[in-house]
Amino acid sequence: MRTMKIREIINTQKRKAVIAMVSGMAVFLVSLIISPDYTVMSYVALAGFAVAMGAITFLELGLSCPQCRGRIGCAVNYPGRPLSVSSKIRFCPFCGVSLDSRLKL
Questions:
Q1: Residues 2-30: tens digit of each pLDDT
Q2: By the number of CB atoms within 10 A of the CB, which of 8, 30, 31, 32 ranks highest?
Q3: Are 68 and 85 in contact (CB under 8 A)?
Q4: What are the beta bridge partners of residue 33?
Q5: Can you tell me whether residue 4 is helix, strand or coil?
């Protein structure tokens, strides 16, 4: 059985969502620039926008504590770095478990 720190699990989810958000925004912007020449690119721009908004929604509402399933997106997104949880956040605000404790997967 494999174990991971709770912080690592949240960091993995956050990193994937931020990469999806940035990719969606890049597709959206490039497609908007190209869309006057190719009308089909406006649909690609909408798809990129949808991906970016979906990722932002996941970052705010979908990130949860693996221990108690409490939504901690707002708590871990604002302070700290964009791709990981700040080291200043040490506990889940809902269940109080340490983010540096190990969890069996």
A1: 889 999 999 999 999 999 999 999 999 99
A2: 31
A3: no
A4: none
A5: strand
